[in-house]
Design brief:
Low-confidence stretches: none
Strand order of the largest sheet: 9-8-7-6-10-11-12
CATH superfamily of one domain: NAD(P)-binding Rossmann-like Domain
Structural class: alpha/beta
Bound molecules: glutamic acid
Distance between the termini: 38 Å
Mean pLDDT: 97
Shape: globular
CATH architecture of one domain: 3-Layer(aba) Sandwich
Largest sheet: 7 strands, mixed
Radius of gyration: 20 Å
CATH class of one domain: Alpha Beta
Strand content: 15-25%
Order of helices and strands: HHEEEHEHEHHEHEEHEHEEHEHHHH
Number of strands: 12
Helix content: 40-55%
């Protein structure tokens, strides 16, 4: 994170703008903002070398009016309760914008997974599950992968949870397909990013093919986005990860990037590319800049240097509130996280439904239904942007907040 502001502060500011445009009174804003429940846990772990380390873990369950709490679990040294609060509320808005019957949550463990052995990671995950099992479940709260976690971590949670409650695949999503995971879940966020970019192009009578894109972050989301955009004719001119970046103004050969990453654990040093640091990469001239890693990578210190036409938020909260204002003044469109990266949670929803039905759908069905969900949400947002001359973020927040508020009031509060 490059900014001192918390993700919660950024989110609160965006949410406040949307609620003001909706003419909500301050008490309604506060009511929708505050989380239902916050859980903090201490997880002592005996490491392989015999030493004892205590990790902090968090889960914020923001809102379950529209369905069980839903959201990722991240393993990263920057995980805090404060950021989890902002990200959990963001999830409630994301599920609401997608019109799927789920609420919002987020959590994590403040650990560096790269410094832990597989054995230690598994032990830590099982310990976390043992401590939180009463507060999660198919009708309560359904974790999923996020930064630093993957299908393997979900499998450990499912396994530990099932020891207590019996076979329960629907307790997590994003698990391995062999354990009840959904086809198409792993690439879902990246596919969703591409679908939203396609819709944006269509809405503005532009063609996506032939355009250039820069992607910061080459994990699950970044690499799948690159692959799918490339298959649509977009030239990916630069990608990066925490160890550096690769740049080729005529377009990267993604097979070479992937081969380099498999061999050396980074995209930096890929043949036929120039190396580039993350700061320079963010300032490259391109049609689409896609931050796909951590939050707050674009703040007031670098927003003035951005030379992309459009910013596509594949990560959660990559642009601070101050940066958003600067970019808006400069005429740079920002397509917001709750729309752009919602493909992940939409296919998580499909996975949960398949688990509850004890029946699985083919990948073609998943892709088609994902496309329908995203297109419907995008059309609503883009139509509001045109009609009300507001930002993409504000329109997305407004659609989501109205739906959430309506449900909240319908419960009889
Ligand atoms: N971690 C993803 C997100 O932030 C997916 C959440 C989920 O599938 O529950 O949207």
């Amino acid at each position: 994170m490059t900014s001192d502001t918390s993700i919660k502060k950024t989110h609160d500011a965006f949410f406040h703008t949307a609620c003001s445009e909706l003419d909500y009174k301050d008490d309604i804003f506060q009511l929708l903002l505050v989380a239902n429940r916050e859980i903090r846990l201490e997880l002592p772990l005996r490491k392989d070398d015999g030493s004892l380390v205590v990790y902090n873990a968090y889960r914020v369950q923001h809102n379950n009016t529209r369905g069980p709490y839903k959201g990722g679990l991240r393993y990263h040294p920057c995980v805090t309760m404060e950021d989890a609060r902002g990200l959990a509320c963001l999830m409630s808005l994301k599920t609401s914008l997608m019109d799927i019957p789920l609420g919002g949550a987020k959590g994590g463990i403040d650990c560096d997974p790269s410094s832990l052995s597989d054995r230690e990671l598994e032990k830590l995950t099982r310990k976390f599950t043992m401590k939180i099992h009463r507060n999660i479940g198919p009708n309560i709260d359904i974790p999923a992968p996020d930064i630093g976690t993957d299908a393997r971590v979900m499998a450990w949670i499912q396994n530990e949870y099932s020891k207590i409650y019996g076979h329960t695949p629907a307790v997590v999503t994003g698990k391995p397909v062999v354990l009840g995971g959904s086809e198409g879940r792993e690439e879902a966020t990246g596919r969703g990013v591409s679908i939203i970019m396609q819709e944006y192009s269509r809405h503005n009578a532009l063609s996506l093919a032939g355009k250039t894109a820069v992607i910061q972050g080459y994990g699950n989301v970044g690499s799948n986005t690159a692959r799918i955009l490339n298959s649509m004719g977009v030239h990916i001119i630069a990608v990066s990860d925490s160890r550096g970046g690769a740049f080729n103004p005529s377009g990267l050969d993604l097979e070479k990037v992937d081969a380099n990453r498999r061999k050396y654990g980074t995209v930096a040093g890929t043949e036929e590319t120039e190396s580039i640091d993350n700061k320079t990469l963010l300032a490259l001239v391109c049609d689409y800049l896609i931050p796909a890693a951590l939050g707050h990578v674009i703040d007031e210190t670098n927003a003035g240097e951005i030379r992309a036409g459009v910013i596509v938020e594949a990560a959660n909260s990559p642009v601070t509130h101050e940066a958003h204002e600067i970019l808006n003044d400069r005429g740079i469109h920002v397509l917001p996280d709750i729309l752009v990266n919602a493909g992940g949670v939409v296919v998580s929803y499909f996975e949960w439904v398949q688990n509850l039905q004890q029946f699985s759908w083919p990948v073609e069905t998943i892709q088609l239904r994902l496309q329908e969900k995203l297109q419907t949400a995008a059309k609503k947002v883009f139509t509001m942007v045109d009609a009300e001359k507001t930002t993409y973020r504000c329109a997305a927040y407004k659609v989501a907040t109205e739906r959430l508020k309506e449900a909240f009031f319908a419960t009889g509060f």
